[in-house]
Amino acid sequence: MSKLFVEQFKDEIYRCIRCGYCRDFSRYRDSAYRVCPLRENDATPGFEPYSARGRLMLIRYVLEGKLSLNEKLAELLYTCPTCRNCWDKCYVAQTKLKGEHMLNQVEIYEAFRHDLFKAGLVSPRHKQILDWAEREHNPYLEKHEDRVKWIPENVAPPPLKGEVVYFVGCTASYRQKHVAAATLRLLRKAGINVAVMGSEEWCCGSPMMRIGHRDLAKAVAQHNVSTIEKMGAKTVVFSCAGCYRAFKVDYPDLGLKPTFELRHVIDLARQLVNEGKLTIKGGFKGKVTLHDPCHTGRHLVHLKAELYEQPREVLAKIPGLEFVEMERNRRNSWCCGAGGGLRSYNSDVSLALAKNRVREAEKTGADILTSICPFCYRNLSDAMQMINSKMKMYDLVEILDMVTE
Amino acid sequence: MTLTEGALKLLEDAVGRDKVFTDEAVLYAYSWDSGPLSLLTLHYDKPMFMPDVVVKAETVEDVINTLNVANVEKIPVTPRGAGTSLSGNSLSVKGGILLDLTSMNAVKSINPDDRVAVVEPGVVHRALEERLHEHAMFFPPEPGSADMCTIGGMLANNASGVRACKYGTTRDWVLGLKVVLPTGALVSLGSRALKDASGYNLTQLFVGSEGTLGVIVEAALKILPCPEQRTLIIAGFRGLEEAVKAAQLILRRTTPSSLELLTEKYVETMNKVMKHFKYPPCKAVIMVELDGSQVEVEHGSSFVAKEFKSVGAEALEVYWNENDRAELWHARHHAGFTILRMFTSSEVKIKAAHIHDVCLPLSRILEYLRYAEEEASKLGISLLPYGHLGDGNLHVNWYVDTSSEASIRAAIALTKKMIEKVIELGGTISAEHGVGALRSHYVSLQHGPLLEYMKRIKAVFDPNNIMNPGKLWPEDEEDFLEQLLKKVS
């Protein structure tokens, strides 16, 4: 067997002490919340290998030559939304040695997924997505030429060059188009003549990275970065947590160093409101709760770039809006189940997680669930329909679009 | 043990195919626990403790059906909760069926009036604690693994932890059990009454039996109202002598809920990761927790502080704030893990914690520690003692280089000496971690001819010896360190 990509994490894997904080509860920061969403309400069989320590031991056995790559192993490794709560609640991971976290579970899973992918152990559905994305630059099996159809007909098309570029992302381009439209309107209200990449925008590469096709991820990342740089962009704005995380974390991991600034639209909107460039007129009535996406939260805390307070600050500025927290918020936020390639790998498990999150949102008594990611929107709103929830789902950028002038 | 096709078919028919797993990856994922034994696998071609099949029990009927098949087919059965055992208690030493009980995780009832909670074995301690807090009640035994371990594992192991000083062990908090015997019979042991003088105490026989007599499928646990107040007092001492003396002075006049000992190396590594507090940088540190009414705790803390000072405490702090205490306890619970920081990348792979779990009368602790240090020093071993000093339970650990013949030989020699000494001083080889597979070869040193009586008791309940063989005493296997020594040399 040729050297595995995950070999680079061997020392970290041996640091796992199999204590089990990644399973159910963790006293870390004195929280008592469940840790792995796969274990809540029997979303999965609850097996050892679904826990982080189980996965790490299996990878260790592979590295020691005791276990060969096989389909069941692939199933166990791909049945995970990579929400990073196991990393966040792991005492070893949260202990630093020479300034570095001693263990990085999700990075290890993804490196191992790369090995599984190279061994041809990718699922038929993931293979279909990767093949399509290589050709049509999106994972939704949509034609590339339809990417710009999110632009409302009654507005002037955004320019294709400019200092501020909106990276729309596949979900907002093909599925949650309302999020893209609201983002465009909001930025224009603030006087920003935001540009888009149009047909030059390709998938951000996140699905490829999550599944393990690093080469394809790198190719699309290179295309996106070089295109944006040619557009003369100084700032790139994102409405998708996954795309934002891909540019912030994956692109440097793939060896790219974008020269432009990366901003999530909610972070930018907060600044624009504070500077008086966006005016909140009010008129919103409703009780709102917020879902923190993993990709703008736990996936960025090691960079000290997490977006926890920014959306809350924005929500607090909207007159008439009553905000209520879910029990699990910020670093304890409970994954919506969409990420990590799980939605496409096993939609039953993915939606089981989303249903758990919606039920938690319902417990707050809020009538609106909001978030800052169209992919979270997608899974949570699907779950709402499945359980006949009375809640409504809005992206926060939509709420801001409603209340600003 | 290799399961026959016929036996597997019987098992699948009995419990349903969706609860029976033979995938290689799944079996590998059950080949370890939180203890050091499974780390020895590094030196073998296959994991040492592989089950042949995993059964995920969801109901009592699943357990009955599994044991019925196992007993007829003479298949070993290893019950498992969260797999947080440190002595290989839930490892399949003889292959066979690994019975995962974590899905049987209902808190069936909480009755504050009767002070009883009825739970299934897969309930995580922390989950029970959360439910009990809704009623202002608590379940006193609290192992360091309370966030992960299951009540079933605690019962099987007679676990305890930091509060045993005042509240005893799990055994003291069990009123009754429902058990599936190896023959498939479901029996109820004990009662819901707080007192019972009606014959042999079979309930407490099953507690601590490490799954060798049957499978616990329900437990009626005693619970208590939460104390009004808790406080934590931490003091540093020049040496172990002063620390033990301080403990003795305190225990003569009061009963703290915890009285813990930390030694220099732990304090040093823990302080590197502590955010808001530091433990006193001393040779020995004692943590005393008091609980009770406000008046009791205030009075008790003054007394403890006075006694600490009388034996020359170098630093002394009293923590009343709950969050402060939580941070300090959190670090204490992870003291053992924090030691990992000491190892380089190449060391972390081969170093296995050799965890001792002895318990002695407090008056013999110093003699034992001095002896252990002296013998360890002769063998070039650096000990890392800490533990629950208030009840005499110490974890006198060290790290074995599993790739070094000399290190393994030294570990075998020191282990034997330390175990003989603890027995000589009137102690026990395991206080709370259990015998498991790790200490199975040493149990005869403690129990001598009485071990035969234990085996006869097992045979009464388990005539075909299917329940967790290779635990409490060895079957035919060599001691695992001896096995490793042969492998490495």
Write out key terms for the chains shown:
heterodimer; A: alpha/beta; Fumarate Reductase Iron-sulfur Protein, Chain B, domain 2; 3 domains; four-stranded parallel beta sheet; 17 helices; globular; B: 489 residues; Uridine Diphospho-n-acetylenolpyruvylglucosamine Reductase, domain 2; Uridine Diphospho-n-acetylenolpyruvylglucosamine Reductase, domain 3; Alpha-Beta Plaits; 4 domains; five-stranded antiparallel beta sheet; four-stranded mixed beta sheet
Could you describe the 3D structure shown?
Chain A is α/β, with parallel strands linked by helices. Chain A has 3 domains: 114 residues, Fumarate Reductase Iron-sulfur Protein, Chain B, domain 2, CATH 1.10.1060; 151 residues, 3-Layer(aba) Sandwich (Rossmann fold), CATH 3.40.50; 118 residues, Rossmann fold (3-Layer(aba) Sandwich). Chain A is 42% helix and 9% strand. In chain A, the strands form 3 sheets. Chain A has a 4-stranded parallel sheet with strand order 4-3-5-6. In chain A, strands 8-7-9-10 form a 4-stranded parallel sheet, with helices on both faces. A two-stranded antiparallel sheet of chain A has the order 1-2. In chain A, a hairpin with a 2-residue loop joins strand 1 and strand 2. Chain B is α+β, with helices and mostly antiparallel strands and 489 residues long. In chain B, strand 5 and strand 6 form a beta hairpin. In chain B, helix 14 runs antiparallel to helix 15. Chain B is globular and about 70 Å long. Chain B starts with a helix and ends with a helix. The chains are: A alpha/beta (405), B alpha+beta (489). At the A-B interface, helix 1, helix 2 and helix 3 of A face helix 2, helix 4, helix 11 and helix 13 of B.
